[in-house]
Amino acid sequence: MATILNLPPRTDAGLPRVDGPLKVSGTAMYTSDHNLPGMLYAVPVCATIGRGTVTAIDSSRAEEMPGVKAVYTRQNLGKLYRTAPATDISGILDERRPPFEDDTIRYYGQYVAAVVANTFEQAVAAANAVKVTYQSEKPDVREHLETDEKPKVDSQRGDPDNAFQSAAVKVDETYVTPTETHNPIELHASVADWDGQNFTLYETSQAVMNHRDVMAQMLGVPQENVRVISRFLGSGFGGKLWPWTHCMIAASAARNLKRPVKLVLTRDMMFQNVGHRPRTQQRVRLGAAADGKLVSVMHDSLNHTSILDDYSEGCSEATPYTYSTPNLRATSGLVRRNVGTPTSMRGPGAVPGLFALESAIDELAVKLNMDPVKLRLLNEPEKDEGLNLPFSSRHMVECLNVGAEKFGWSQRTPQVGSMRKDGLILGWGVAGCSWIAERMETEASVDLHNDGSARVSCATQDIGTGTYTVLSQIVSQKTGIPHHKIEVVLGDTDLPPGPISGGSWATASVIPAVLEAIEKAQQTLFAIAGQGKDPAFAGKKPDAMAFTNGSVHLKDKSPDSGVRFEEILSANNIRSASGSGKSEGTFGNPNRKYSMHSFGAQFAEVTWQPETARLRVSRVVTVIDAGHIINPKPAQNQIEGAVVMGVGMALFEQTVYDPRFGAPINNNLADYIVTTNADAPQIDVTFLDHPDKVINPLGARGVGEIGLAGIAPAITSAVYHATGVRVRKLPVRIEDLLEPASRA
Ligand code: MOS
Q1: What's the CA-to-centroid distance between 242 and ligand 1, angstroms?
Q2: Cα-Cα-Cα-Cα dihedral sign, residues 409, 414, 418, 424
């Protein structure tokens, strides 16, 4: 049956993406589009067991196959080092073991060898002909998580145990989120080139600066000998934040063979070798007084990690500051499984953490017989009680009130199954959401050219989110130069060091640096004018001049009296007036004065048709407080995408490991279900647009991740409202919902 998509009209005619034409015309160069002269193709050989030891690798047949240049194993790949522990946002990778470091297999699909050949097809054929013998053991991929290790206390205040014991109303439930695999359509890829001294690495990277640092450390060469380029990314969702082991295989092979090497992962390798959001199991205990005031919050979370790496999902992230309560404890622990190393996935920590916390709040509202919006308003904190700091800007109450108004929440009748529309049972649910806001140290440079154009550059990335557009917009707004005359250059470690495209921090981080660079470029221009021959400016000090809409003029004269900047440059035979700027970082600052976060409220409607067991998410109203929104168009697009991903988290996504061999068995886009257009609800996005001047002069915090947080618990709360079934283990399965029908 055809589904009518009833998307609302765009709320704003914001600037369209400046890189859009390159993408739709197919001329944007993604990593695997780079084809270098003499390039070879590498294809890894993946372990077909989940745990055990490699006892022999017979590559003799593969080596004799047509076009094969090398078969690499532990014996001959060449020296690779481990990285030193990262102390900053540099030198980070989640799977720290270099490829082929030992003969132990710790997860299914671990690389054990790699074939390099003239063509991709030859490399695939030869990789299939490499014979690997194992001593196999049964892998541990059990879903239930438990550990004897003492959990880490992430946040604590008051006496949560006693306060819970004596609370009038209690919730004590365990919530589970499954392993989720990032599925950007662009596969991870490396194209590595080595000229005898310098590596040029085209990478699918959300963080080229970090990538360079890691690769230099692991290859054992100075940083200046490594250049990392990532011009366009077919998205990453966090899966491309840090390097993975295929990057070192490609770079080593290029160094060994003195030829460029391309390595592109397959979709099934994406499920094994480049991270995933780990499974989480979270016990939440809430204690409240009879009037709904929280007296105790306890949130104890576990997540699985790999055998060698300590990846903590960080489910406690939002717990300490979301609600006011005198007594709280949040803990976290790790449980080892024979799986690849997990990594950040859109909203790491907060997204699964808020599924648990916000589900529990909804359960508390049911027990209190209180409206869940009202319960949240009642427990709204005045400050971050975890850090004991004021919020830089928090408009959670407004998010809830505006969302309730837009959604029509006052029409809700709380009884299960009590609302109907067009013969369907309606379920309505709500959840709050939040996401950290930070800045990373950033440098940027701006050149104003003598042809009236400008260039802005920074070694950050545009991962599909709109960074090219936002930088063009800032330069255009501050200089009056039209967009078609502004060149934005990103994704190259030769540029001034920029932030990761992660944490939703890129925009907030680059703004101060770009603003300062523009100002410095204008100062340079004033100096040129003051030393030039034009009598209007000759001998004048730069601080007597101003820059308005592309023209330089004296501060005490009108902008109309000014001279175009390109004319000043041309008259003095100078190509460019340049400036560079720098932003300070906030991340990890021990002397922070504010708690910085974005907030939001998510309202979801589901329709439930018990006769056919058909559940759909029909409508989502999302109200986001992310500071000032620089360009509502890509920002709205980010939130819409996140909502769609949230429907997937609630209803579809989970990576399933085969208990026999530890393989992710639904390792393809047919069996790993993601939300399609037909599943997408009607989405109504509102931005409150309250500038947060603590984070940067424009007041913009970032929108990449916040939109996913809170969607899943809003949906499961709506499912409860429609069906009476509280699903605490994602994703919601139809089987879960059949229970009451069979009982009835
Ligand atoms: Mo995001 S998970 O920090 O790319």
Answers
A1: 10
A2: positive
Is the pLDDT at 632 greater than 80, yes or no? yes
- pLDDT reading at 1 higher than 60: no
As a whole number, mean pLDDT of residues 541-570 equals 96
Distance from residue 458's CA to the centre of ligand 1 (Å): 19
* 236 CA closest ligand 1 atom index: 4
pLDDT surpassing 80 at residue 615? yes
Question: What contacts 24+ positions apart, CB below 8 Å, involve 213-217?
Answer: 213/90, 213/91, 214/83, 214/91, 214/92, 214/93, 214/242, 214/243, 215/243, 215/247, 215/248, 215/251, 217/81, 217/82, 217/83, 217/84, 217/91
- CA of 596 from ligand 1 middle (Å) equals 17
DSSP 137: -
* Better pLDDT: 88 or 334: 334
Q: Which residues are catalytic?
A: 705
The pLDDT of residue 2 is 36
Alpha helices (H) in 608-665, listed in sequence order: 632-651
Task: Give the Å distance between the CA of 704 and the centre of ligand 1.
Answer: 8
Atom of ligand 1 nearest to the CA of 501: 4
Tokens for 112, please give them.
């054990």
Q: Shortest CA distance to 300 belongs to which of 176, 178, 432, 151?
A: 151
Q: By alpha-carbon position, which residue is closest to atom 4 of ligand 1?
A: 238
Q: Which of 322, 341, 296 is nearest to 106 (CA)?
A: 341
Atom number, ligand 1, closest to the C-alpha of residue 344: 2
Strand pairing partners for 487? 455
State the closest ligand 1 atom to the C-alpha of 238, by its place in the atom list counted from 1.
Answer: 4
**Calpha distance 296→379 (Å, rounded):** 12
- Unique residue bearing structure tokens 């988290």: 649
Q: Is 192 helix (H, G, I), strand (E, B) or coil?
A: strand
Strands lying side by side in the sheet with 545-548 = 545-548, 551-554, 563-564
Distance CA 317, CA 349 (A): 6
Q: What is the mean pLDDT of residues 396-408?
A: 98
Instruction: For a ligand 1 pocket test, name from 440, 705, 706, 708 the mutation site with the most ligand atoms within 8 angstroms of its C-beta.
Output: 705
Q: Which phi and psi (to 5°) does residue 333 adopt? A: -150, 165
Pocket test for ligand 1, best of 346, 465, 507 (most atoms within 8 A of CB): 346
pLDDT at 740: 54
Closest atom, ligand 1, to C-alpha of 241:
4
**pLDDT tens per residue across span 285-310:** 999 999 999 999 999 999 999 999 99
Residue 724 to residues 173, 174, 387, Cα–Cα distance (Å):
16, 18, 37
* Ligand 1, pocket residues at CB < 6 Å: 206, 236, 238, 241, 344-346, 348, 502-503
Structure-block tokens of residue 375:
């319960």
> What is the per-residue pLDDT across 344-400, written as a single tens digit (0 to 9) for each?
999 999 999 999 999 999 999 999 999 999 999 999 999 999 999 999 999 999 999
Q: Per the confidence metrics, is the pTM higher than 0.70? A: yes
**pLDDT value of position 88:** 87
- CA–CA dist 491, 522 (Å, integer): 25
State pLDDT tens for residues 9-62: 443 457 889 999 999 999 999 999 999 999 999 999 999 999 999 999 999 999
Distance, CA of 73 to CA of 707 (rounded, Å): 43
C-alpha dihedral sign at 462, 463, 469, 475: negative
Q: Which of 426, 728, 406 is nearest to 607 (CA)?
A: 426
pLDDT for 739 equals: 65
Nearest CA to 409 among 721, 626, 726, 11? 721
> Distance from the CA of 80 to the center of ligand 1, in angstroms?
27
Distance (Å, whole) CA 121 – CA 125: 6
Residue 547 has pLDDT above 60, yes or no: yes
Q: Return the structure tokens found at 716.
A: 């499961």
